[in-house]
Amino acid sequence: MVIVGLPLAALVWEATSQGSQSFWDAVSSPEAAAALKLTVGASLAVSLLNAVLGTITAWVLIRDDFRGKTLVNAIIDLPFALPTIVAGLTLLALYGPTSPVGIDVAFTRAAIVLALMFVTLPFVVRTVQPVLQELDPELEEAAQSLGASTTTTFRRIVLPNILPGILSGVALAFAKAVGEFGSLVIITGNIPFKTEVSSVHIYGRIESGDSAGAAAVAVVLLGISFVTLLSIGAIRHYATRHDR
Amino acid sequence: MRAVVSRLGLRAIALLYLAIILVGPLAIVFWRTFEDGFAPAWDALTTPETLNAFKLTLIITAIAVPVNTVFGIVCALAIVRRRFPGKGVLNAFIDLPLALSPVVVGLALFLLYGENGWFGGWLSEHGIQVLFALPSMVIATIFVSLPFVAREVIPTLREIGDEQEQAARTLGAGGWQTFWRITLPSIRWAVIYGVILTTARCLGEYGAVAVVSGRLQGETETATLRVQERYEAFDLAGAYAISIVLALIAILVLVAMTVIRPREETA
Known about the structure:
Helix content of chain B: over 70%
CATH superfamily of chain A: MetI-like
Structural class of chain A: mainly alpha
Order of helices and strands of chain B: HHHHHHHHHHHHH
Number of strands of chain A: 0
CATH class of chain A: Mainly Alpha
Low-confidence stretches of chain B: none
Radius of gyration of chain A: 21 Å
CATH architecture of the largest domain in chain B: Orthogonal Bundle
Number of strands of chain B: 0
Number of helices of chain A: 12
Low-confidence stretches of chain A: none
Mean pLDDT of chain B: 90
Radius of gyration of chain B: 22 Å
Strand content of chain B: under 5%
CATH superfamily of the largest domain in chain B: MetI-like
Order of helices and strands of chain A: HHHHHHHHHHHH
Oligomer: heterodimer
Number of domains of chain B: 2
Structural class of chain B: mainly alpha
Largest sheet of chain B: none
Distance between the termini of chain B: 41 Å
Shape of chain A: globular
Distance between the termini of chain A: 34 Å
């Protein structure tokens, strides 16, 4: 409580002590608003990509069988174990100005999406995997033997069961993406109005001594984190009620 | 036949996805670092500033991990085994560091311990330097790595139930004795798994520490801060060399996770 609650109280205090008008001014300044819009937009896009690609990856890891699957399964957690600043640097090495494959996305919005995809990769895979593991493959086989196509089987049998898993994974990925900092610092170049996300914007405000402005935007991010956590709680609650 | 085709197709998508996002970039950095042999990378690693940065990272980790291990076990026990007012709040607060931007964490600490902060005046009167020094960096690291042990231990505690603990109590064991002899052995793999995750998070922390450390070269620069400093100084070889060491640690963490996860699940 002292470690988490007190600093956050100080943060909210700093953001609101000048009155709601200056809080609103700081959040709605053109640069801050552009950064917030970019942050939420890119995070939503990445969450959707995660929902599709993460679910496919989880399905392959559970239902498919091939050599080296254990290794592939272990690699999923790499973004979690690798420092974010190293993630940014490695992405720049392959998709930056000195790219050996001729793709250069450095300092563009595509770089933001790429970096966010890297750091959020494990979430959906790791929330869908256990649910899929529990789901009896015989259900799918039964549906197919009754003449259902692969897509119908997925839509009618698999998806309803793994949907809570996908949703809570997507919510976790969204929360992580909104707050991401380390992997974006190097690869996006932090160009205001173009590639500057909110966490980088906050950092810039701190550096230039405007801690009230930084705190105002930080409180918005804090609010997004809270709402996301609450919705994860609601999804879990709904999923367990569904079981019974 | 169609089922086989779609199965292979999905496998190809999944593997390609992982190759493009994860494996490819990391492989390039390994290749670039050792392109000119082992010696340049070694030289870049053994400069005094870089060695100092690694030392600082290790010191911070060595303080933060034990603190969070004890805190995590205590919190998990409180949440699973006890009823008290504010339990819901504690439960929600534990997860917050996972969803919060590290820069926001850094800023919150900055505002608390800074010159005009709530504690800033008192601290500077007593000549205690927290901000731009080791204490604030340790606190920031503890904050961001707070939930991992508790989150691993909570489900395990729920699963094992408290029948054995009650049996031990009935047979006359005290609170401590029950904890050491019964509870701790049955949650040990969950604790170890949580400690590994915590360690990885501590070693890799960047955003929160970047805000509170002031980035004084050779003084408050951790390994991750050093990576960016080297990159901005156009010393790519130096940035890559430090990154490789951090990536190798990450791979060790993955190996440990892979070895321990099945034990945790069967325990």
